[in-house]
Prior knowledge:
This protein has 3 domains: 83 residues, Orthogonal Bundle (Hypothetical Oxidoreductase Yiak, Chain: A, domain 1); 171 residues, Malate/L-lactate/L-sulpholactate dehydrogenase, NADPH binding domain (Ribosomal Protein S8, Chain: A, domain 1, 2-Layer Sandwich), CATH 3.30.1370; 41 residues, Wheat Germ Agglutinin (Isolectin 2), domain 1 (2-Layer Sandwich), CATH 3.30.60.50. The protein contains 10 helices and 12 strands. A hairpin with a 7-residue loop joins strand 6 and strand 7. The chain is globular.
Amino acid sequence: MTHLVTALSLTHFIKSAFLATGFSNEHAETTAQLMVQADISGQDGHGVFRLPQYIKRLQEGGMNPKPDFKILSERVATALIDGDNGIGHLVMRHAADIAVEKARTTGVAWVGARMSNHAGPASLYSRYVLDQGMIGIYVAVGSANHMPPWGGTDMMLSTNPISVAVPSGKNPPIILDMATTVAAYGKVKTLLQSGGTMPEGWMSDKHGNPITDPAKSGDGFLLPIGGPKGYGLALIFGILAGTLNGAAFGSDVTDFNADNKTISNTGQFIIALNIEAFMDIEQFKSQIDKVWEDMKSSAKLPGVDEIRLPGENLARTIEKRTASGIEIPKPLFASLTQLADELSITRLS
């Protein structure tokens, strides 16, 4: 059973929850809008599903409700910001604004962040840069370690996601949004709440046996995409988003799923690439439309109905959920109702 809610009512509910825990009106509104964007996009493990967890971290001191962002170092095309332990949505929106502004002049800008937190799905920020007429690239150190180095059993790496957003002309933008693990841990958590099972290949125990019960996820680890290649990507992304920014990486990462009090010092970076530094933007979009046509016209394997590009299903989901509303599973709706009562705010309707 699910409850159908509008984006407007969900945004109002999330905003009210953050206001009740000390956010300013502007910060509560921005964070709520970004979280609802995740739900509208079908990224259910990173939208309102995360709200109770965020509120607990705020209440128990693990996250700062009133962050004061600072630029620690800056050059013409780069910057490093301190997020003052604010929620990652606000930190990365701030970082993206700096990157876009710099890229208007420099052609490309890289902005890293330390002392941040979980920020929802990676594509929120690559898409934000995309909306400014540029190519956006976002990478983060995940907020808990769920993967060992290739051949090991000690959890030293997270899902360390990447998103790249590329504009097109008549087609939806090409948007890659992926973890370096076969599945993001948020998907495991949503399956646990809904009572579902994981496909084989998502997780393994320390003896190499597959885990399909989400309730037993603590007994094993997520598997990397492409075997050792996924491990390599997770390692490099962690160095670039974590170590380079003076943020947590490897054994220093705090499990924010289990610890609401310890500061996570999450690291992320955003790159804004100004297309006009290379060619006319409309010409570029026209060429991306040709890429679409080339990919879609490829001969198909038996049993394949359609070849899709990254971001195509996301565009369909956004269109559908914008028109018909967002489905909230019954267990999550009950959790949000309990949260509303605890915060003395109006329940989600």
